[in-house]
Amino acid sequence: MTGVSASAGDVPTPARTRWGQALHTAAFALLLGCVAGRCFLAELPMRSSSLQFVPDRMAAGDGPARPGGNPLAYETDRSPGSRMAFAALLLTAGVLWALGGVLAGRLTVSHTGLAVLMGAFAVLSLASVFGASDARAASSAWIEQVSLMAAAFLAVQLCRDRRRFALLAGVLAAVGVVLALKGFWQLAVEFPQRTADFQAHRVERLGGFGWDPNSPQAALIGKRLASTTVTGFFALANPFGSLLLVLGFAAVGLAIDRVRSAWVSRRRAPGERKPGEVHLPTLSAVLALLAGGLVVAAVVLTRSRGAILAGALAGAALAGVLAARRRLKRHRRKVLLAVVAAGMLATLGAVAYGLRYDRLPGRTMTFRWHYWTGSAKIIRDRPLFGVGPGNFATAYSQHRRDEAEEDIQMPHNVAVHALSQYGAAGGLCYLAVLAALLLGCVQPRDPEPPRVADATWPARRAWPILAAAAGACVAARAIYGPGGSLAGCAIEWAVLAAVLAAVLAWTSWATGGRWGIPAWSAGATRTALACGVAAFVVHNLVTYSLWVPATAGVCYLAAGACVARGGGGRRRELRLGAGVVALGAGAAVVAAVGVFYLPVHRRLGHSASMLRALRDGRTAKALAEARRAAEADTLDAQAAGDAAEIAILHLRNVPRARSAAMGRSAEAFAAEAIRRDPENHGFRRLAGNVAWVQAAWASPRFARAVALGDEGFGAGRINEAEVFWSRAEMDPNAAGLVARAVEHFAAAVRLDPKDARLRVAYAATLCNASLLDACLAQLDEATRLDAALPGESLVRLRDEERLRIDMLRARAKLLLRLRRATSGPTSSSAS
């Protein structure tokens, strides 16, 4: 098949064909490297403050903080940079594919219906970006999802070649084996060391990350550190379990095909082997079975009940398909309808149970029911375009139920997440793309699969691709992995490279080698990989792995490869427009790098410098770098919020004559953070803290009165008149700042009405501002919210926090009586 060139009537020369094939090989290698490399990173599917683990940060009403603490706490989160870098690389792989097709004279798009669906999602989800509160989070999440779907699209185009499919399945199996070994290493070595270290230095370790040893966060961290649930390179077990489902089924399918190959080889030539000669196909099959067993065991060790159950169902489906393949092929539509009907009935049954009892069986599923019913209010309020990609957490805070313990980042359900982020327009399109991929995975192969480049794709091309995949994994870990000493990191990279090289060498031998891909149909591997993809999606009914970059990338890549080897689907050959498509794709990648990657990269560089300066106690340098970080990325609200906190940190180190100017600078940064993300309650609370600190610095008399009120009352030595009348003697500037603090705290409570601790902080501000009736109302509501939580909840108020509520309530009532005794009944309220 010679194809049609990009220019009419032009027959491609052999040199151009070779260049086109080389570009397709490069695109495939880049695709594999990007997806495999991310499995070795702890990328977060959400953004966070660079100061989240810096100790001695500013607290409500406590005044300026001091730098110091564990130097390990001063590390910036590099996952935003890795997410944008990998998105750009995946899109670059698409450009290489398009250019390769133009040069080879045959730019053919397979499964054009799926491509149109993906394009429609890109457009409709972009509309959701423009209505999002946090524009940076929305734009970054949008380009990431588009790039992940581009990975599936490229797999559909490139894996029609059975050699490429075999290499892809082998790389996935190899990554699964390496991650399984990492899990066993955690269980045998890392967990005992971590637990012993935490028990010996508990207060020091928690203090190094800015956590009170008696806080709920500390209790949660202690519980997690005592757990023996394997997580690989990730932070949580559920995403790791989802990832191992796909990788494990790739390994299991490879093992089944190698066992078949060994069986056929033994039957064909039973007398050709010499006595004592090792039957290499059998050895390959045994190693493949061992690899599959390792990954399956790692899935069990994650203790993710959803992943284990989804894997068991998919395993049963795989056994049934392999045992009755021909019969199922004849009744494919009936079986699919039965599976879909069973899934819908199970979903409707769960919904009916939840509506009847307002919970689901088990504590974990009840948590999720609370997540989903709260998220339903988001969908109700923003039905068409949703709240925007990456903006779920902000919206959920406004709709969280009283009983819901956590202020979650994800709703733990793929349908709820898609509809809340993208609305009906983009969300239904997203779900349609997933459905189309799943249907393509179960599409039976054509009687005569397309022979795409089989005759011109020598097996020696496998080694450069495998080397590129291994190199990408090590490079990803080296560039975006956790920091540490150079020697320690070098040892980790060397061990990772050696293990990867060994496993990939076996993979190449098991999928190619002497018994070769031409003699291997990979039928069981494709079926098993399709089952792994289906198990992954089923697991995402109760988790969020489709929004974690590494796990989602593997799912999309595997799904695209299965769709490609199934054949079918419409194909369209671009002729005159091929060059335009390639140039347009290249221009889009360049624009994406300029708009998405470079601002994030520059901001991360300045944030890293800011943290280094904080570690050394140079707050002036830290403030300068924080300001540059906020200016480098004009969409990033968190960078502006970090600058506000650093300005308050620096306030202690400037002369009092300059303190007012520094306070105004902090206030300006906080206002900028609110402007960039107006629905984020955290920035409103930050602005309230900034105003409160400014008031304390503007009026030392007021600051002393507040201290006497908090400390003296607790010791039983309160001088009510001094506290009350010091409020009246406060200078007008401080009074205005206190009023602004109250206003910002009120806005924060409106945006996060279910946070009992936020209401206590607001009540303390109201009390010190002499808005006593409003203070009592907030304390009552905080008490009610705390009582609504389950009794065993880790986020319930602690004893010392309840004591603080009692103290604030007693103080407010005492001051109310004093006020009424001296000036008669008055009313006080807060907006």
Number of domains: 2
Structural class: mainly alpha
Main sheet properties: 2 strands, antiparallel
Low-confidence sequence ranges:
1-11, 58-69, 447-457, 512-520, 712-722, 825-831
Terminal Cα span: 74 Å
Give the spatial strand order of the biggest sheet: 1-2
Rg, Å, rounded: 30 Å
In terms of DSSP E residues, the strand content is under 5%
The beta-strand count equals 2
Helix content: over 70%
Mean pLDDT: 81
Count, helices? 30
Shape: globular
Task: Give an overview in words.
The chain has 831 residues and is mainly α. It has two domains: 106-194 and 203-226 and 234-266 and 280-447 and 454-478 and 485-574, no CATH class; 607-823, Tetratricopeptide repeat domain (Serine Threonine Protein Phosphatase 5, Tetratricopeptide repeat, Alpha Horseshoe). It contains 30 helices and two strands. The chain has helices at residues 14-38, 79-104, 112-130, 135-158, 162-200, 202-208, 216-226, 237-268, 280-301, 305-323, 325-330, 332-357, 363-381, 392-399, 414-441, 462-480, 486-511, 523-539, 549-566, 578-615, 619-632, 637-651, 656-676, 681-698, 700-714, 720-728, 732-751, 756-768, 772-788, 799-823, and strands at residues 107-110, 571-574. The chain is globular and about 105 Å long.
